[in-house]
Automatic annotation (TrEMBL):
This is Mannonate dehydratase. Its cofactor is Fe(2+); Mn(2+). Catalyzes the dehydration of D-mannonate. The keyword Nucleotide-binding does not apply. Coiled coil: none annotated. It holds the Pfam family UxuA. It comes from Salinibacillus xinjiangensis. It catalyses: D-mannonate = 2-dehydro-3-deoxy-D-gluconate + H2O. The keyword Lyase applies. SUPFAM superfamilies: Xylose isomerase-like. GO terms for biological process: D-glucuronate catabolic process.
Amino acid sequence: MRMTMRWFGEGNDRIPLEHIKQIPGVEGVVWSLHDVPAGEEWPMEKILEVKEQADRHGLNIDVVESVNVHEDIKLGLPSRDEYIENYIKTIEKLAKVGVKVICYNFMPVFDWTRTDLFKEMEDGSTALFFENDKLKNIDPIELVNTISKNSTYTMPGWEPERLAHLADLFEKYKNVTEEDLWENLQYFLEKVIPVAKKNDIKMGIHPDDPPFSVFGLPRIITNKQNLERFLKLVDDPYNGLTLCSGSLGANLKNDVAEMVRSFSDRIHFAHIRNVKTYENGDFIETSHRTQDGTVDVYEIVKAYHEIGFTGYARPDHGRHIWGEECRPGYGLYDRGLGVMYLWGIWDSLQRVNKEVK
Ligand code: DNO
Ligand code: MN
């Protein structure tokens, strides 16, 4: 398991690389060019800038999260070919600087969805929260306005230029079914996977978060059966998964440890975090510790250990603790604790199995 930490870039993340470097066992940053709109080709100078910054701190840039997919590709519009061309050129450039894994998602309109970014917990910390009823009764534009009021950051997937066209986008998705989305995903993969393979970059789709439809939009990367279907769309090792335990864990029926065992050779990137999911569909993001949520993080790490996982991993969202002011879900402190919890489990498994002294 190769540990990494997501970093939003100089000037866009309050956490300096010096601090990331101090977390034991973290060897690389998971990065992106957050100011390049989805669908555009990434400029080489900007890619090289990030590489230089990471190099200076002895961190690798092997994993990119995400190269976002333009909505026209998900919608299957004729203009998709041009955006796919740009995607391909970006893959080729990323290969030149040694990138090994690209994480992306195929969620219409939004990336992750929550109803509260700073929900107060009993211990005084705050965390990302999803309230099912609230979501059912709120208009997406109203939700975006309420939650972005409380955040000084742009969240991935909620960029102002996209949100400005929200009503338009919803209109375009009106008649798009889940089957349409499968077809559009297949079209995209058939063009992109051969290029990724040629460039030795593994593609890892991120599951939908939460793993069910929100605001009536279709969502397909949601459970084991659909992940199986996804892997068959282009049955090639380069077409793989970013297995996110927290996203999938928002459905109590998803057994992520079992998915790790089943999809072992197709998991290129592991997102490991816990959530506490309630029967009514609400969920709150908790510490990584197994006892704190409903995701069996211990069993998941054990499954990765059993399959001899040599891919990349990162702690995913954390709580906001110790008064840290940070990007929602992406503070330093709780994610740092998360890394140490994951190593704690991993290292003790190695000891028990006499793999190390
Ligand atoms: C949530 C996060 C996601 C992820 C994107 C990848 O679990 O990991 O927001 O970054 O969906 O495209
Ligand atoms: Mn994730």
